[in-house]
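Data deposition worksheet. Section B asks for the primary sequence of the deposited chain exactly as it was used as input, without tags or linkers unless they were present during the calculation. Section C holds the resulting structure in token form. Section D is free text for depositor observations; keep each observation to a single sentence. Incomplete worksheets are returned to the depositor.
Section A, Depositor: J.P.
Section B:
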Amino acid sequence: MRLFRDDGPLIRVGHRGAAALAPENTLASFEAALAQGVDAIEFDVVALAGGPLVIGHSLDELPAEQLALDDALDFLRARDVGLHVDLKLTTRLDEVAAALDRHGLTGRAVVSSFHLPSLRAIAAHTKLVPIGFTYPEDRYGVSKRRGMKPAIRLGTLALRRAIVTRVPAMVARAGAHALMLQHAVVSRGAVERAHAAGAAVWAWTVDDPDELSRLDAAGVDAVISNDPRIFSGVATLPP
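Section C:
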């Protein structure tokens, strides 16, 4: 899995497929992202009690037509695209690693989580899949509350300044190959610190072209978007 842009353009990642264009975490959403030429597709994995691993942001946010992890991987295996597997479960992690291996996708995937023990469990089950540490965690869905946006903006700007010195410790503590950072906390300083520590920076979730331009200029390696059409003005990798 290519994590760093190096001297090339941004790695373009579709969030939950292309959540702005089709129902999220579905094959239709994956198809919509592929049609926009993304380099990778991000999707979430949860576990049904007594059932299979499925694609969904949470058990309360499953698509109308549930998609099993195995079916999603079978679909993606036949497409020339990277996989960003975002864990929304803290158990059955051996099954996630085994599924990636079974479908021959360990070399095309990165696995991320806020939850450090989950990342360590994945690393214990497979050394072939790079690990991404997601930060910060919005446990209570505050970022989705409209009335909280002014306070959130002030908080994230403060965090943008504070996070720079914390980046090396975050990378080391998680054993991370990449930091998946909420876009508002990203700065050029944070990117430079992460790169010096050997970790890429992937920014989520960006649907505004101006913010995309800021992040591109800051040197982030990848941007994750609900609407991959925003990448149309960004240079793409040669075939």
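Section D:
The beta strands are 11-15, 40-47, 53-55, 82-87, 109-113, 131-135, 178-182, 200-204, 222-225.
The chain has seven helices and nine strands.
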